[in-house]
# Entry
Amino acid sequence: MDIDDHLFRREAGRLVSALTRIFGVHNLALAEDVVQDAFCRALEVWGMRGVPDNPSAWLMTTARNRALDVLRRQRTAKTFAPELGRLLDSEWTLAPLVDEILGADAIKDSMLRMMLSCCHPRLSEAAQVALMLNILCGFSIDEIAAAFTSTHAAVEKRIVRGKKVLAESKHLLDTSGDFSDRLPAVQRALYLLFNEGYHGASPKVSVRLELCNEAIHLIAVLLQHPRARTPATYALAALMALTAARLPARTDSSGNLIALLDQDRALWDRARLAEGMRLLELSACGSELTAYHIEAAMASVHAMARRAQDTDWSHIISLYDALMRINPSPIVALNRAIAVAQREGAERGLAELETIADRHRLAAYPFYPAALAELELRRGNPERARAHFQDALKRARNAMEQRFFEQRLAASALPGAQSSAVQFWESSFEPGRVDDSE
Amino acid sequence: MSEFLFLFRGSTRLTRSPEETQKSMQKWVAWFKELNEKHVVKDPGNPLDASGKVVRGRAKDVHDGPFAEAKDLVNGYVVIETATIDAAVALSKGCPILDDGGSVEVRPLLKL
# Structure
């Protein structure tokens, strides 16, 4: 029997969330131990006897029985979830209660509670993201460190502190009450998680792909709860689906970046695009226009253009104008300038680039000189283009960016060099920011 | 043909992420599949729980497990049928426990 590549990781998030509801959030480590124990048992038994027909159910039953053991043996010594109180003390109610909490709908609810709890206001965004990856997605500290090109010690510190804050909060955030004040933080954390996957610094494409998939997986949990399904959540989910649809076209076979406008659009994932458009429609209700709405709308404009030259740049520019009103940043202005260049030519684009307010904040950002370079090349100024590409190369933050700028630099030295599409994204996100925030 | 007992020693209970545990599990599954495809498995054996008791000596003292250090702990066995011990040893080299610092003990079964 073949199983999903990430079955254990997926089940870890589900089971740890559910068991934490039973044991209480102060016993998170105990829940993690029980789940780890079930996985070790699977390793021992499945290894020799083959994978059972329903591996998820097998893991769940094993974790359930182990949890019952722990509850029976330790209920006098330990306090478990206080809100479940006496129900855990009586044999009449113990097993039925555990089974109820391990039911499919209850598990989804536990995951949502865990997600909301991980986004505690006392934690930095980086810690929130790390905590969600660790608890809800089953990533180890080393796996998170690799994905965020961070160190083991830095990630460990975040997670240990995060778990301490969780434990102090006594119980997971209750989803039956009003949790609307916590929702923006969760959306933001998922946005950062997705963007780290999409634009992030890890040299491994597969690792970044997993981060995108985890963000999509977690937002699906959010979409299941009527009060978490806000227009902003739909917009964020649409943004993720529409952007993730481009993943197959985004790198070539050696893992090099391909700019949006150079991508082979036939490789875009049609099913994800359709899903994104459906979500985008669902997001269009209510009165609140969020940055997620605008970024998702931009992604949809690209999705609807059959060829890069069919892109409706006027629409894109108007969306950047809207984004500048909600979320002004030099990165947004940079991308807006590139859109202007697409519509009105290189001269106009360069003029926009050179008048970006706060452009000193782009000093370390390689795609600013890269944009200058492409537009200089486009207006027939290869000397200046090369100087800008060299600037960009100096600022490259990872191997993939470095290769990208090296290629562009080499190409710009050829006689009659053509400008390539300018690398940009319809986002106000600065890659690498997740890890810099502490 | 002769029969050989493979005793797997070492710990499968390492601190690993879910992803790593799954990868290790999949290596075991693949190895057993390979053995089965070669038709060398006489008895698929069993994994052994790490807990248990040891009864020792004339006094018949009963001790709680574990009885060995993690690296020496027997955690499973299987009976293999091959022509020679060399062939059995060659097969044992595919065992994933070796990647985790464990060992496989290959012992001929005496047939009376």
Summary: The CA atoms of residues 25 and 62 of chain B lie 33 Å apart. The interface with chain A takes residues 12-13, 16-22, 24-25, 27-29, 31-32, 44-47, 75-76, 78, 96 of chain B (CB under 8 Å).
